[in-house]
Description:
The protein has helices at residues 8-25, 31-54, 58-83, 188-201, 440-449, 460-466; strands at residues 86-91, 97-103, 118-122, 128-130, 142-146, 157-166, 173-181, 216-219, 222-226, 246-248, 269-271, 292-294, 315-317, 338-340, 361-363, 384-386, 394-395, 407-409, 417-418, 430-434, 454-458. The protein is an alpha/beta fold.
Amino acid sequence: MKRLVNSPLKVIGLLTVILGLLGVLTFSHFFFVGIYLIGIGLLIYLVDYLILKLIRNKRVYSAIQAILTTAYLVLAFVTYMSWQEHNYIVFQKEFKGQAGIIFGIEGYPELPETKFWKKTIEIPDNGIIITSTKVEDIPSTIRFAFTDNSIVDYRNIDWEPNFEIDCILNDSKVKSWLFQVKGEESTAVKEVMTSLCNEISSNTKKSVYKSEYSPIVADSRGKYLWLQSKDLISLPDGLGSLGIYRAILTGNGFNDIPEQIFEIGTLEDLIMAVNPISEFPCNLTRLKRLKSVSFAATRIKEIKCDLSQLDSLEHFDLARNELTAFPNQLKTLPNITWLSLNDNQFTDFSFIDERLDKLETLDLYSNKISSISSETEHLGNLKEFLIFDNEIDSIPDNISDLKNLEKLEIWNNPIKYISPKIAELTKLKTMRIDDDNLTQVDKENLKKWLPNCNISYQTRSEKEVTL
């Protein structure tokens, strides 16, 4: 044991190895730190051995030992304190709701300087700090406190360190740290960020941050707005000047159609899917050129307004809303040709009547429909019928009503019987169906009845294993 600690370097080497072993034994995020420290400790022992072999003068040997030991201790202290560098975020007493620090806006005060590895940032009463300091220039670690020194439950504070808003009309963006102190919902910081974008567009403010990718994208039809999964609750002004034909706002926090969308007189496609919209926006009728709209995976359960003024609207998407009843106001759409109702809770076709006779595409997959009932008489113009993943066990005689059908997707249904009248679907080009309960004779008949149709079979049990 004495040989392990008979020099200053050996002492700190042994202590480093012991500290590393303790880190390894925790089996936590300190495990790899422990491995690193063990390596350093063994390296110190190697350095001590080399000094002993190469330096014969005792005074020189002692001096080198003292210098290296002191240097190591200083380095270890600086490294440890650097690990301790953090932002000390101080909220006002009993603060609740959203708070945030908006970075990189020129002309605003810088954040306080770091003192002894701690930058104290006191959040004001309104919860918002705007600063010219860049987020890259401050520590990435945070600790929380309240001005009354009350105990902080970190589980009640959410921190989103990478929230940003593209200003859309220019290449600037606004970046922030968002804090949500549980107890009260608020969107104050996001609203201020949107207002800053408006000021940047009017050249009264300037952000140091630029957008890496423009949210304005182009395809063969023209320009469109892509703002998917940005956690937005508002949009900047001036969108009408963009001349876009589509706005994709999927996966945000909009409770309604943003007012700025109505500025876009050229808009034809509006996708508001996966937003917390609970009441159907009757002002949709202001978008006179609208051809397609999606409110999939929202909270809409009913429609209370007349949609007959939307005479240009052709595609309506209400998928993934857990609907059990069809919103009858959809039937006031005069020219609807495509209806998406997949992933709901419909059990039958009873909602179909003559007002939907212009439908060319009907998506009803992933519902709980058990039969293809007589309402097919109103679907004589249907070209695509997607009804897979339901509970249908037969294709009945009335399938012949669908005389213009070109595509039938009916797989993942326990089909046991197919009516010979399916032969009347002379325009059918593709069909996909499960063959779990079909005999070889059934398949041969189907091919005979539909000689010009590409029929694909799949076995449900094999598909489920694959999935």
